[in-house]
Amino acid sequence: MQKTWRFRPLLADTSFIILSAFLLLFLQALLRALLLVRNPELAAGTSNADLAWAFVVGIRFDLIITSYMVLPLVLSLLLPSGLGKRRLARLWLLVTGGMVLFLGVSEPEFYHEFHTRLNSLAIQYLKEDPATVSSMIWHGFPVVRYLLLWALLLGLLAWGLSLADRWTRKFGQTYPAWWLRLPVFLLCAFLVALGARGTLRHGAPLRWGDAFHSQNLFANHLALNGTWSLAKAAMGNKKKDAGKTWLKAMAADQALNRTRKLLLAPGDTLELPEEYPVLRSHAPAKTLSPRPKNLVFIIMESFSGQFTGALGNDHGITPHFDELAREGLLFDRVFSNGTHTHQGMFATVACFPNLPGFEYLMQEPEGQHQFSGLPALLKPLGFQDVYVYNGAFNWDNQKGFFRNQGMTRFIGRNQVENPVFTDPTWGVSDQDMFDQALREFSRLDADKPFFAVLQTLSNHTPYALPHPLPVTPVKGFGGLDEHLTAMRYADWALGRFFDEAKKQPWYKDTLFVLVGDHGFGVKKQLGEIDLLRFHVPMLLLAPGIQETFGKRIHTAATQQDIVPTAVSQLLGRPFTHQCWGRDLLSLPDDDPGFGIIKPSGSDHTVAHFRGNHIVIKPPHGKAVFGRYQLYPEPSFTPDEQPPEKERMLKDLKAYVSTAMRALVENRTGLPKQEQKHP
């Protein structure tokens, strides 16, 4: 009888651990329900069975986090007094559980914005500028409401731990001898280790791919655990490791040959092929006449193709862009290289792809390399340059990166004259940025050509806009109303800029390129890569462009194709470049176009599309092949046995590994050349 009595404190502590684990699992299930409630439009059309199974699969991911949280309690079973009076045990679970709950109540808005669970993108934002990010969160989201919810859940956790403590109250104070405690500890430790793996299978522990049980991307993401995905990103997002994996994807010579076949257009000639992977001389097949003298890139924040009227999605959001499209050459199948402004900037201006592990290239040591972008191609020819932006250039290290590439004049939020509106988070409004750009152009030497990069920002959380608002607020799109109102305002500011630009003497000599830096999450998700987040409009405007090239081009393309396309028309003659895209206006009529894209953050999924075919390669698991359609209604149709699949998958591996090798070996730029003038 005495021996049985002495076991009761050990059994009481074990019962407390078990009850605490169930409480933590229950609270994490509530967080998953919160994610579902905040994003009902993404769940629309998903069967109840798929959503229910997401909660079942999610228990395995929640169990991993729970196992790590209760591990110190299990280890304490080896101590002579076990959990003691449990104060430290309850405090530990309250603190760690509070962190999990905080991440959980933060995640629904993160997912609503980025369509991904917490990952390295969240870490990168906080690393970039905590003050700016904090301001964006405070002004852009219902922070107080979520803090109150967090406090409520934290109180529920504290009450539940107190209740578990009372229900498993110890009787007697003496633990059994260590050799009697050891079997109980080993059993608990085994169960915790099993829980931390998340699976009973042999080999690898639970992977994110195990959450993918449905054709609906949101249902798959719902099964994941945000704390788990964030921890994975913090521990595992090693760019060198990601690079090494892709470097081994294919033999270097084979990869190089396939990549060159992808990128070389008819009439292109390789130069210094032993030193540079894709350096070539390019002769434009057809050019504008008269040839433009200047070049202006306008990169529009979050300018989604899914709400652009000129692309057939006329919701009244972009009437000014649509009017401009009637005057220019519209590309209707263009995709951003990533889902963050950072990737859109270096892909559009430096024409280099978004690679796994190097998503924040402008901030990495490799970002100090030279690239074959606008500055490298035009500065040696005597072009003046100016970069105008609403915000601060230290964000994303834009100024450091582009100054290193050769740009010299940067006009940011603090240099804008007499702004009508300044947002404390980001900077001045789009109309202020465009007005300042007009001033800067008038100050340039009229006898010399110039190129400019104009980057908008108002269409970004927290969507702070001038008051009174010069456009009618958007209604009828639920959670997207505020976002689309900002997009309508950005479109208004764009139209206002062109109304004034057309009055300037330099206008008739200028080629304009308008493109979105990326899209944003919409109700419909195409494929495992959420393709519609990448769909952006691209428009070329210049005198005589429709007479030369027509009104619309259906070639599939990415932002990497913009520099060679624009520079071909600007120079109107052969030139040497090493862009990782092609001149879209010099392709054969039967070329469907191709591109390589990947999401931002630690998601190393990469996709390769060719025409309307796409192959999506996750970091683990099988590649998914299918056909996508943008018009008249977006759709994705999986196709497991097409003849093109293996060829496209090999091209994907070849392109990424060749670009990765060029980057790590610093062979992405141009040979040193003497200064030349047009």
Brief write-up:
With 678 residues, the protein is α/β, with parallel strands linked by helices. It contains 21 helices and 17 strands.
Structure description:
- The chain is α/β, with parallel strands linked by helices and 678 residues long.
- The protein has 2 domains: 2-236, no CATH class; 291-639, Alkaline Phosphatase, subunit A (3-Layer(aba) Sandwich), CATH 3.40.720.10.
- The chain is 44% helix and 12% strand.
- The protein has 21 helices and 17 strands.
- It has helices at 2-38, 40-43, 48-75, 87-114, 120-128, 130-140, 143-167, 178-197, 217-222, 226-236, 239-247, 252-263, 319-325, 341-350, 374-378, 398-405, 430-443, 481-501, 545-549, 562-571, 645-664, and strands at 269-270, 280-282, 294-300, 329-335, 384-389, 410-411, 450-455, 510-516, 535-541, 552-553, 557-558, 575-577, 594-597, 606-610, 613-617, 624-629, 635-638.
- The strands form 3 sheets. Strands 3, 4, 5, 6, 7, 8, 9, 10 and 11 form a 9-stranded mixed sheet that branches. A 5-stranded antiparallel sheet has the order 13-14-15-16-17, covered by helices on one side.
- The radius of gyration is 28 Å and the shape is globular.
- Residues 674-678 have low confidence and may be disordered.
